[in-house]
Amino acid sequence: MTALLTGFFVSFSLILAIGGQNALVLRNGLARNHVFAIVSFCALSDAILIVAGVVGFGAVVALYPNLPFYMAFGGAIFLIGYGLLRLYAAVTSDYAADLGGHPQPLRKTLATVAAMTWLNPHVYLDTLALIGAVSTRFVPMDEKIAFTIGAVSASFVFFFSLGFGARLLSPYMSKPSTWRALDVVIAIVMFILAWQIALSAH
């Protein structure tokens, strides 16, 4: 039980920080745009990365020591690009039409979520590596499995709560001005993350 709870709370606390992926889930949750597909993709991706971390991501980095740098560089560029898109949307988008029921196509939405998930170096450098490091505390196989289950469960609980819980905010998000402000905030978050990633790459 200790391993299970440790895995859950370590994973949950790491995912809880506002980041690009979380902002994207929140935005689509508020818009009710392919919520189940998005949160399922995010949770399953996290599950894959968590298992990889427990199995031994550190061994991969040891074989390819330059991998974190290239991942950080690519991730920073992507975050800057996405932030610029959100700023552009804040200036040009017809939010009234969006709120009227014109969701983005599923393929385009999942492509953006996939990029935000798998091009985010923090997933590998922080979350995945840290969870893998914490898992080494549990040597017996049954405890290591329990730790992994706890960590994966936290991801599913978080993303499904964020995606579907966002609907509770719908009454407050009915104004185009609120959506415009949200896009500006998301853009700022993207730029801050890109800056942090660029600094960590040195």
Please give a structural write-up:
With 202 residues, the protein is mainly α. The chain has one domain. The protein is built from nine helices and no strands. It has helices spanning 2-16, 20-31, 35-63, 67-92, 95-99, 106-118, 121-135, 141-165, 176-200. Helix 1 (2-16) packs parallel to helix 8 and helix 2 runs antiparallel to helix 3. The N and C termini lie far apart (40 Å). The mean pLDDT is 80.
Could you write a compact summary of the structure shown?
With 202 residues, the chain is mainly alpha-helical. It has helices at 2-16, 20-31, 35-63, 67-92, 95-99, 106-118, 121-135, 141-165, 176-200.
Order of helices and strands: HHHHHHHHH
Would you tell me the structural class of the helices and strands?
Answer: mainly alpha
Proportion of residues in β-strands: under 5%
Specify the helix fraction band: over 70%
- Gap from first CA to last CA: 40 Å
Shape: globular
Would you identify the regions where 5 or more consecutive residues have pLDDT less than 50? none
Tally of helical runs:
9
Average of pLDDT: 80
Q: Which radius of gyration do the C-alpha atoms yield?
A: 18 Å
Beta strands, count: 0
User: Sheet bearing the most strands, described?
Assistant: none
Q: What's the number of structural domains?
A: 1
